[in-house]
């Protein structure tokens, strides 16, 4: 039997652009997924704004303060 690591609060979720730049992606921590989903669904922000704000490791954790 194989086991996989347990998810943590930092286990990222992949966000994939299907509209403006198909195939562009970044990862987002679960605690910030609400921000991505809410802002994209009401067209308050664009995908690239989140993707460009991702950390050097490709994970969006929040916008710089």
Give an overview in words.
- The protein is of the alpha+beta class and 65 residues long.
- The chain has a domain of 27 residues.
- Helices cover 28% and strands 15% of the residues.
- It has two helices and three strands.
- A three-stranded mixed beta sheet has the order 1-2-3.
- A hairpin with an 8-residue loop joins β1 and β2.
- The longest helix has 12 residues.
Give a quick set of tags describing it.
DUF6924, 3 strands, 65 residues, DUF6924 domain-containing protein, globular, single chain, alpha+beta, 15% strand, 3-stranded mixed beta sheet, 28% helix
Secondary structure elements and pairings:
Layout: E1 13-16, E2 25-28, H1 30-41, H2 47-52, E3 59-60
Parallel strand pairs: 2-3
Antiparallel strand pairs: 1-2
- Report the mean per-residue pLDDT as an integer: 92
* Span between termini: 45 Å
Strand order of the main beta sheet, please? 1-2-3
* Order of helical and strand elements: EEHHE
Secondary structure tally: strands: 3
Q: Provide the gyration radius in Å.
A: 13 Å
Helix content: 25-40%
Reported for the largest beta sheet, the result is: 3 strands, mixed
The shape, in one word, is globular
Can you count the helices?
2
Strand-residue proportion: 15-25%
Low-confidence segments = none
Please state the structural category: alpha+beta
């Amino acid at each position: 039997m194989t086991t996989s690591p347990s998810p943590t609060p930092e286990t990222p979720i992949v966000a994939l652009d299907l509209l403006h730049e198909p195939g562009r992606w970044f990862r987002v921590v679960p605690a910030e997924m609400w921000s991505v989903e809410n802002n994209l669904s009401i067209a308050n922000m664009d995908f690239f704004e989140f993707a460009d704000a991702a950390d050097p490791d490709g994970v969006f954790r929040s916008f710089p303060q």
